[in-house]
Amino acid sequence: MARDTTDFRPIEGVDELVEHLAEGNKPRDKWRIGTEHEKFPFYVDGNAPVPYGGERGIRAILEGMQEKLGWDPIMDAGRIIGLVEPTGQGAISLEPGGQFELSGAPLETIHQTCREGNAHLAQVREIAEPMGIRFLGLGGSPKWSLAETPKMPKSRYEIMTRYMPKVGTKGLDMMYRTCTIQVNLDFESEADMRRKMQVSLKLQPLSTALFANSPFTEGRPNGFQSWRGDIWRDTDNQRSGLLEFCFSPDFGFADYVDWALDVPMYFVIRDGHYHDMTHVTFRQFMAGAARNEIPDGLPTMGDWANHLSTLFPDVRLKRFLEMRGADGGPWRRICALPAFWVGLLYDAAALDAAEALTSSWSYEEVLAMRNAVPEQGISAPFRNTTLREIARDVLVISRMGLKNRGRKNRDGYDETSFLSTLDEVVARGTTSAEELLSAYHTRWGGSIEPVFMEYAY
Question: What is the model's pLDDT at position 2?
């Protein structure tokens, strides 16, 4: 999330919180695709991480991008921490360890998504390359220790950094040493949201497997195909993971609100200042728990929107659905991730087929799949088969959905070509992580340094 929300309307009751989510309902002709992707900046000379300050730092890249694009700066305590397109069509933000993120505009086709990604990468290269900086497309930082990783000066991250070790063992790794590709998708009604939430929760471990791309930590293999997937198993289980209540046949907006109300908060913003609220849940906040701690002490709709943005389930519900399972990766993956999910969820026949395929999958089975994927990738077992075989069926459905959409580029090609990189994973039977490990043990001679050349933007 590039910019925290400021909406000073007071909250009168829980019904308003439910309505806030329901306001995301959109007719099909208004459905859009919002793609986010993160990458690690590094100095070409020595493959070292890039700090915030200095003539060749993150701040200088942001200032150069601001001058080039004319986007509005996002400021925090007088420091530039991001950029936003003036009409809200996209933003650039920083993750805690300097991971550079594009939050894309809401677009109609995957063709547009790819053009957007291409343009962004070309723009950031134009600014960064004269500084000797490039960007790495992996799901986990392959070389730098947590101590070596820079810290970005964002107030919310200071609060999170203090809080994470209290609620899990891997939260700081999540913040500072992982990258993702995500897609945000719309729904037309509560029933449509329920179907999409349930299908995408069940298939999120498959997405993690197909996009597994984080096999190295601190210069050597870490024992995982998706280290990032393992990190999410013990980051903060009060606010993340696979949500069992979402599997209920009558799951709705009110159920998600009821869960979110009992998750501890991170912060509230008053007069530009971030107040640490990690000691109270949002329900306690609404009951007056902060009356003596912050100005006015009353919750606002902006506080609620910010709270929703600090929840980290595998699929996050706001006024749209966020697919959160995939590791970061090279350019082709930036296009493949939204194509995969749009094909499954934005065509009626494909959604019917995906729902039929997964309808009998229980919470316990999906949880076991989620736990197996970080180590085993697409070789993870499911019932009497493996995720590789499940992936074949799911990609057929996704391809059907994209074909049915019929969104063609100027050359007459539809969106199905963007699945080719995932077809290769299934045909090979090996993930990107396994290919990286093979290179490490053979042609790289036991060094991870070549990854900075082969996986750089």
Answer: 61
Q: How far is CA 24 from the centre of its chain?
A: 19
CA 68 – CA 210 distance, rounded (Å): 36
CA distance 379 to 276: 43
Give yes or no for a contact between 394 and 357, defined as CB atoms under 8 angstroms apart. yes
Whether pLDDT at 1 is above 60: no
CA distances from 279 to 168, 298, 309, 311 (A): 16, 16, 18, 15
What angle in degrees, to the nearest 10, is found between the helix axes of 331-345 and 190-210?
Answer: 140
Tokens at 138, concatenated: 């992996």
Nearest to 134 by CA among 330, 377, 415: 330
Question: How far apart are alpha carbons 102 and 120 in whole angstroms?
Answer: 8
* Closest to 315 (Cα-Cα) out of 400, 141, 193: 193
State how far the Cα of 73 lies from the Cα of 62, in Å rounded to an integer. 9
pLDDT-derived band at 140, boundaries 50, 70, 90:
very high
List the structure tokens of 378: 């697409």
pLDDT per residue over 282-328, tens digit each?
Answer: 999 999 999 988 988 899 999 999 999 999 999 999 999 999 999 99
**Which residue type sits at 41?**
P
Q: Residue 115 has which token pair?
A: 């053009």
pTM: 0.97
**pLDDT tens digit sequence for 33-59:** 999 999 999 999 999 999 999 999 999
Question: How confident is the prediction for the chain on average, in pLDDT?
Answer: 97
Give the three-class secondary structure for 171: helix
* Of 415, 364, 416, 425, residue with least CA distance to 390: 425
Task: Output DSSP code: residue 287.
Answer: T
Band of residue 8 on the pLDDT scale cut at 50, 70, 90: confident
Q: Could you please report the per-residue DSSP string of 373-408?
A: HHHHGGG-EETTEEHHHHHHHHHHHHHHHHHHHT--
- Cα separation of 203 and 179, whole Å? 20
Which residue type, as a one-letter code, is found at position 185?
A: L
State which H helix or E strand residue 438 sits in.
helix 432-441
Rounded distance between C-alpha atoms, residue 236 and residue 163, angstroms: 10
Token pair for 127: 């600014």
Mean pLDDT, to the nearest integer, of 74-88?
Answer: 94
Q: Among all chains, which residue has been given the structure tokens 């997937």?
A: 229
